[in-house]
Each structure stands twice: as structure tokens, then as C-alpha cells.
Write a structure and sequence with these properties.
This protein has helices at about 1-15, 25-35, 40-55, 60, 65-75, 80-95, 105-110, 115-125, 135-145, 155-165, 170-185, 200-209. The chain is an all-alpha fold and about 210 residues long.
Length: about 210
């Protein structure tokens, strides 16, 4: 089965795949993921050490001066709106969630700067829940492998991935699919010639014609 081949191959290639954002607790994870929107993990990891050192808790970050936060994260994209969002979400964490990152999707998505993708990353990494966060890499890989259609939107891709694979595998697959798309099945010059999945890949079949 194609599903078994993909799962086996990803387990072989990336047995220890995990988030590449640097964090030590759920609060830092949430902040890092919000900052990572339209920015590389490497870029986020450059700014979070000083940010977390100065504002290690929601209580401290909620009272931070926005300009100071902006200055700490100004090398990443959309830094002004992100600074406002992480200050705002910290305030909500303190006032509504006893300074604890919530484990319910609805509560996460009610936070400034947190959409479905960010919520899925937090639910998967912080709480070990079986969710798939569909970024550009996951979307590209799933469409090339025929799990989803080229016309599918992000939510449809997510649902098709969840129905295609065994639910208990989704937590690990979340990272493996990202790694596969980021380092192997890249947007430009994918490594098709050495790929063990090329025989089930629609993209490779089209390239051969």
C-alpha cells in the first residue's frame, strides 16, 4: 500500500524528526510558533533567546513595552504585528488561563496571532496530540504524492492527510513531512533521482513524460 510505503520511508529517513524551533516550555513554544509565521525557524531561533531571557513568563511579557519587544524581534517578518500579538496573547493567558497555555483548539485560536496551523503545532508539540500543521512543505509533498489535489486548500489538505494515514502516526508524521519537504522534496530541484517514493509520486511521473 502507498500509505505503508510512505510511512516506512519517512520513518527510515527521519526517525527522530522534531520541531526545529528552540523552546523549553509550552509558553516559549507558543510564542516561537506565532513568531515563525512567514519566517524561517532559523530566523526565529536567532531572536528568541534574548526575548525569552527578558520576558520568560506571560506576566512579564504582557506588561512589556511594545517598542522594546519590536526591537528584540525586528529581524523577522511582520515584527510589529507579531510584537503586538505576543503581548496580547500573554495578557489573555494570564487573565483567562491562569498563565497556562490551553490545550483546547478553541482557546488557542482565540489568542491573537494564533490560527489553525499555529494551534495544530502547539497541540502536537506541547500536548502530543495527533494533528497535522499544513505549511508550504506539507502541502507540496501531499499534493505531489497524490494524497491531496493541487486545487485543495489548506484545510482540505489537512483533512485528507488525516484520513490517509493512521491517526496514531500523525504526531510523528507532522515533523517527518515537514523535513521531507524542507530537505528532500524541495520546491525547486527535488531529489527525485534518489527518492524512494518516486514510483508513487505524481510529480515524478509528470516529469518523466
Amino acid at each position: 500500500m502507498k500509505k505503508d510505503l510512505i510511512t516506512k520511508t519517512l520513518n527510515k529517513m527521519y526517525p527522530d524528526a522534531k520541531a526545529e524551533l528552540d523552546y523549553t516550555n509550552n509558553f516559549e513554544l507558543l510564542i516561537a510558533v506565532v513568531l515563525s509565521a512567514q519566517t524561517t525557524d532559523i530566523g526565529v531561533n536567532r531572536v528568541t533567546p534574548e526575548l525569552f531571557n527578558k520576558f520568560p513568563t506571560p506576566e512579564l511579557l504582557m506588561n512589556a513595552n511594545q517598542e522594546e519587544v519590536e526591537d528584540l524581534i525586528k529581524t523577522i517578518g511582520l515584527y510589529r504585528s507579531k510584537a503586538k500579538n505576543i503581548i496580547g496573547l500573554s495578557k489573555i493567558l494570564v487573565e483567562k488561563h491562569n498563565s497556562v497555555v490551553p490545550s483546547k483548539r478553541s482557546h488557542l485560536e482565540a489568542l491573537p496571532g494564533v490560527g489553525r496551523k499555529t494551534a495544530n503545532v502547539v497541540l502536537s508539540n506541547a500536548f502530543g496530540k495527533n494533528y497535522i500543521a499544513v505549511d508550504t512543505h506539507v502541502s507540496r509533498v501531499s499534493k505531489r504524492l497524490g494524497i491531496a489535489l493541487e486545487s485543495d486548500n489548506v484545510l482540505t489538505v489537512e483533512k485528507k492527510i488525516e484520513s490517509f494515514f493512521d491517526k496514531g502516526d500523525l504526531h510523528k508524521l507532522h515533523h517527518q513531512l515537514i523535513f521531507f519537504g524542507r530537505y528532500h522534496c524541495t520546491a525547486r530541484k527535488p531529489k527525485c533521482d534518489v527518492c524512494e517514493l518516486k514510483e508513487v509520486c505524481n510529480f515524478y511521473k509528470k516529469m518523466k513524460k
